[in-house]
Fold this protein.
Amino acid sequence: MRAVVITAPGGLEVLELRDVPTPEPGIGQIRVRVYASGLNRADLLQRRGRYPAPPGWPEDIPGLEYAGIVDAVGPGVRLWKPGDRVMGLVGGGGCAEAVVVHEREAIAVPAALSLDEAAAVPEAFITAHDALFTRLGLGPGEAVLVHAVGSGVGTAALQLAKAAGARVVGTSRRAWKLEKATALGLDLGVDASREDFAEAALAFTGGAGVDAVLDLVGGAYLAGNLRALASGGRLAFVGTVAGSRAELDLRVVMTKRLRLVGTTLRARPLEEKIQATRAFAHHALPLFEQRRILPVVDRVLPAGEVREAHRLLEEDAVFGKLVLRWAEESRPAS
């Protein structure tokens, strides 16, 4: 099978499309013929040698999510059969023509979605769903601040929060991304390159502060996050594109009785990943079928253009997700 291979840590030039052995499913596993792979910033970090794959996953093949069709099943598999359309998370190796996963990790692709669209769902939407509802306990009528709202996780969080009846303040350093996010239902867009997002969030809530913050940026945003939060507010750290270190004022945390939590999906044990996947599927798949939420795909590129895809992601020229296509899906006309 073909796969994107990182030949050495470095720039775009280290990415190559190569032939590698096709994996075989073991007990309780399925093999998926991948039609499309979603790209993430984690792939950029892995390419640079700064985010290695967890044990048991390919070290030199990036990719955290896939969509395709089951083409082989291992002994004991009961949930899927060849021909089923599935999508899901992997710890690595998703940028390839085939992946092998535990049958309980796979999710049925909603009939309303193409496989190109489905490839943009797992990492963004499961991350956002887990952070918003399992970690932050977001509820109807609450206000949430979502940083990097134009990213894959950001656009997913925006839609999930709105579907749950929450109000959303979103930040970006690109005005054009805020315009697009507004079309998705964003209540207030804040240009973080020009505006104080904490002041904007306080003004939006009449001085009370937001109930929750989903931080996909990290670094120096911490102080503003604490200011923006209401008493009893919750903060989830999901990304660190601006750095992993910041000074924390414990007095603010104590006085406001804040709760801070960190989360990541890639390094979780299998059962925890399955739990997050099942919770997402139960709640969100009906929303996709009803088209109340949709994956935001900036563009789909052939797998052979993976270097261009990485370049676009590095230059922050993407709204939502970039998808690599390995094969054209043939679907009957509706």
The chain has a mean pLDDT of 96. The chain has two domains: 2-121+266-325, 127-262. The chain is about 30% helix and 25% strand. Residues 67 and 87 are 4 Å apart (CA to CA).
